[in-house]
C-alpha cells in the first residue's frame, strides 16, 4: 500500500534506515504511478494490517518505509525502512506529556481508563463494535477550575481533558474504519463525595476546537 507522505505521518529522520534495492527488483505499477504523481517527494509504504485507506489517518507506526522520488517523478532505487514500524497496537505515550492533573483524575491506570471510555462510547452507538487499536495522536490539552478555600488555597472542582486520537474500529459485518478527532472527558464535583463524568467524541474536530468548548462543557456537567 503506498501514497505520498503526509507531514504528520512521516517519522523523524533518525528513524530511517537506508537500504539498497536489488537491480532485478521491478516496482509494481501502483508504485510507479504514485511516484509520477509525487515528483521530488516520496512514496510511503503503509502496513495494511493497520489501515485499509492510505488517504485517511495513518499512524506513524503503520509506515513500513518510503521510496524517494526524483524531480522527474522516477523512483530512486533506494528504500528507507522505518525502524519505528510495529504491528498494530495501542499507543498512549502522548497521554503522559505535560498532563499531571488529568492523570491524577484518571486514576492508577490512565491508559485503561481512556480505552474503556472510548470503547464504551463507540460500542454504545454500534453494539458489537470491536476496537483494534487506539492512538493518542498528539499531546492532550486540559483545563482546571476550582473554588477558593481557606489559607488562600484553591480546591479543584472540575477538570477537562481533550485527547487528539485515532482508532481502528470494526463494526459487526462491516469493513474496518479509522476514526479520528478529539475525545473530551470532563469531571465535575471533584470536591464532593461522588464526582460526575461526561464524555464527548468529536470526529474530525481539532484539539484547538475542543479546548474552545471546555468552559461551556465544564459547566454543563
TrEMBL record:
Taxonomic lineage: Bacteria, Bacillati, Actinomycetota, Actinomycetes, Mycobacteriales
Name the record gives this protein: Suppressor of fused protein (SUFU)
Superkingdom of origin: Bacteria
